[in-house]
Amino acid sequence: MEFSWPIEKVKEVLGESNNVDCSKPISPGSLSSKLQALVEELNIPEAKIGLASGVEAFLWLYTCIQGFKPATVIFASELPIGSGLGSSAAYCVALSGALLALSSSVKVDVSQQGWQGFEDDELTLLNNWAFEGEKIIHGRPSGIDNTVSTYGNMIKFKSGNLTRITSSLPLRMLITNTKVGRNTKALVAGVSERAKRHHDVMTSVFSAVDSISNELSEIIQSPAPNDLAVTEFEEKVGELMEMNQGLLQCMGVSHASIETVLRTTLKYKLTSKLTGAGGGGCVLTLLPTLLSANVVDKVIAELESCGFQCLIAGIGGKGVQVCFNISS
Ligand SMILES: Nc1ncnc2c1ncn2[C@@H]1O[C@H](COP(=O)(O)OP(=O)(O)OP(=O)(O)O)[C@@H](O)[C@H]1O
Ligand SMILES: C[C@@](O)(CCO)CC(=O)[O-]
Ligand SMILES: [Mg+2]
């Protein structure tokens, strides 16, 4: 999609507060309705209306970080949108990274060829801006998705406290996209409502999820297992995933399509859990190291025959990087 706004119009609506300080991430607050009005004027077709919040986040990040400079911005993304793979966070992190890279707050070298990373304090700033964008898209995000997109690899995250961790063993997952659309904001709100209705039960569910996360982080950081112990290591991870899925079901965020993936992979003795906000979207299936390629092919064929889409991914990757000359 292509949109444009005359700079004068943006200034008029968002106010010519030209003392933009990109070193201090802030929320739109009372400007929120004005941002929405700027996007409503675009008459985005109903089928793509989900993008409206992404466009609002763009306008906010752009005007806060770059002020009212005229520019053309092209955004391309390969992630499926609204499928539980954190496309909203990846979008906000990429935008914040690109906008900050062109600001005075960040010391990247625009003349350097190839991909460059950011310094630690720059990553903190970038992550905080991306979180502001996520808030516009999600309502009340925890910040986990933008933090993972910013830093890469694995993150242990609790109420804003993050610990960067690395797995002693590479983990491989099959990602199945059920292609059932869902809305993260609505799903997260649904969990809050259930927590209000059943306070004690949901407190126990959340506490069990917390214990699963703690146990998982201990397992994956323990010294690299030898060949014999790899299966044991993977079985522990699989069992924790299975319990986590059960608890997510308790929270009301599973879906018939997710249950179909669980049943199908279980036929091949493989464990799966939903990812992202649930309600459809993507499901992760642990692919043990010793699993034969033949079984992987069979499970993929069966899942794809249900109309799902599969891809294999390694867990952990690089965080945000910037490149000024894409052909290099
Ligand atoms: N490439 C993009 N261009 C514009 N907006 C985008 C883009 N990618 C994501 N978004 C915004 O993010 C929204 C989808 O975010 P949402 O949080 O609902 O799903 P997700 O991030 O893919 O999954 P989850 O949050 O469960 O991991 C889109 O509706 C749009 O507003
Ligand atoms: C479902 C959720 O945990 C992640 C969405 O990818 C929501 C959040 O943490 O903000
Ligand atoms: Mg999201």
What does this structure look like?
A hairpin with a 2-residue loop joins strand 2 (154-158) and strand 3. A four-stranded antiparallel beta sheet has the order 5-6-4-7. The chain has 328 residues and is α+β, with helices and mostly antiparallel strands. It has helices at 7-14, 32-40, 51-66, 87-101, 120-138, 144-151, 184-197, 199-221, 227-250, 256-266, 293-305; strands spanning 115-116, 154-158, 161-165, 172-177, 272-274, 282-286, 309-314, 322-323. It starts with 6 loop residues before the first helix and ends in a 5-residue tail after the last strand. The longest helix has 24 residues, at 227-250. The protein binds adenosine-5'-triphosphate, (R)-mevalonate and magnesium ion (MG). (R)-mevalonate binds next to helix 6 and helix 7. Residues 86, 88-89, 138, 145, 184 line the site of magnesium ion.
Q: Gist?
A:
This protein has 328 residues and is α+β, with helices and mostly antiparallel strands. Helices cover 49% and strands 10% of the residues. It has helices spanning 7-14, 32-40, 51-66, 87-101, 120-138, 144-151, 184-197, 199-221, 227-250, 256-266, 293-305, and strands at residues 115-116, 154-158, 161-165, 172-177, 272-274, 282-286, 309-314, 322-323.
